[in-house]
Amino acid sequence: MTSEPRARRARPAPAPAYDPRARHLRVFSQALGVEKGCYVFVPPELKRDAALRVPSLYLFRGHEREWVNPSEDASRGGRTVIDTYLELRARDAIGPMILVFPGISSDDNHIPGLLVNWRAPELAQGRAGVGTGRFEDYLVQDLIPYIDSVFPTIADGRHRGVGGFSLGGFMAFKIAAQHPQLFAS
Fold this sequence. Notes:
Layout: E1 22-29, E2 34-41, H1 44-48, E3 56-60, H2 81-90, E4 98-102, H3 135-150, E5 160-164, H4 167-178
């Protein structure tokens, strides 16, 4: 009589501790036909001055959570981009701005959206968060107008920037080159 090992009950992975200073939003996209997640950081000065309007900076990575997850990359020493932003603000090296971290991939992060309008979204095999695959339209037609309507941004291209890291750097360069009227940098 052989005994097979008993299957161990899988423990759920602990939820990553995202930076609580960033708000997580779910925004319905007409272009994608689904809700997408994004994180938004509003600087402390805006809480003190309701009339203040500031520039916005859209930051891209492989997925939006990388910017606000202090344990995503050990080389960052438990810090997020918000820590760096606040240090620069404390030194008066930069002005106040709203930081936006858009989700530009499938919800499970296995399929990057690349900020393009896909020709064959069916190749995503039904992964959540892809919808029609129109990721460029999602950013340009849905997310930017939403952010500008809900947060105290200066809602014009001269006061909106993009940046990114790795795949996000490609996306930032691509979207700024294709839509120069929407982004100053």
